[in-house]
Amino acid sequence: MTTELRGKVAIVTGGTSGIGRDAAVLFAKAGVKVVVAGRREVEGRETIDLIRTGGGDSLFVKTDVSIAADVQALVRKTVEKFGRLDLAFNNAGIEGALIPIAEQSEEDWDRTIDINLKGTWLCLKYEIQQMLKQGGGGAIVNMASVAGLIGSAGFATYCASKHGVMGLTKSAALETARSGIRVNVVCPAVIETPMGERIFGGPEIKPYAIGLHPIGRFGTPTEVAEAVVWMCSDRASFMTGQSLVLDGGFLAGPNPPA
Ligand code: NAD
Hints:
The protein is an alpha/beta fold. Helices cover 45% and strands 15% of the residues. The chain has one domain: 3-Layer(aba) Sandwich (Rossmann fold), CATH 3.40.50.720. It has helices at 18-29, 41-53, 68-82, 106-133, 156-176, 194-200, 205-211, 221-232; strands at residues 9-13, 33-38, 58-62, 87-90, 138-143, 181-188, 243-246. It has a seven-stranded parallel sheet, sandwiched between helices. α4 (106-133) links the parallel β4 (87-90) and β5. It is globular, with a radius of gyration of 18 Å. Nicotinamide-adenine-dinucleotide is lined by residues 13-14, 16-20, 38-40, 63-66, 91-94, 115, 119, 143, 145, 188, 190-191, 193-196. Residues 13-14, 16-20, 38-40, 63-66, 91-94, 115, 119, 143, 145, 188, 190-191, 193-196 line the site of nicotinamide-adenine-dinucleotide.
């Protein structure tokens, strides 16, 4: 485990379950003070307990990333508690209704875009403001998906939101590179989380979905968390504006039959 992150302060959004929870715990193991942000208090406190049991320092801030005042308060409370902000993993997201465009409601489009895309933009806005106020320096990782790189029938709104996160990441990286702030994005294929289970856990779809991954299985939240912690560390010091694909071979090409 890298030691250079010790004493840094991170925000992890959507840290109440899945990939965000594993990332929060892994940051804490690396000595990072972690502010866990999410809408669900009980689950948020469970993440905090996991961190404290491992000897880490952490704070839960109830946050809806689609609401500007919440995100602004998240950054303010982070600085009030820990004095600064060095790292952020903007991970919160929803899948929305997975149905064809022709059947989709405007409300579902708005909700998915509000959380996945506007939420990432709001996080970037207030995190970068704080990092600049500190004199620059810092690392941010956004959460996209392989759905940020390819289309998928029935996933149009989710794909649009994640493609948007890719563009936000590159633009933010260009705006902040000279200030020493690195902004990157992670693009996983299917990961074993509550969301992964909701979408691909059914008995019929699961074998098909596993078959899309040449490696022969879904990814684990820890495999994504490991990459995110590395991207936030100085070991990734020349990486900005880039995406890291974690997909078990999903995008490498057609999967030959077993
Ligand atoms: P998850 O459902 O376990 O976690 C999502 C988290 O985001 C939850 O804790 C949820 O409460 C939180 N969240 C949702 N809306 C929020 C809001 N408005 N404000 C604050 N928090 C909110 O699923 P996960 O798989 O861990 O998903 C994490 C991220 O990874 C998502 O952005 C998702 O799109 C992305 N992703 C997941 C997979 C996968 O297969 N699981 C693949 C690629 C990308």
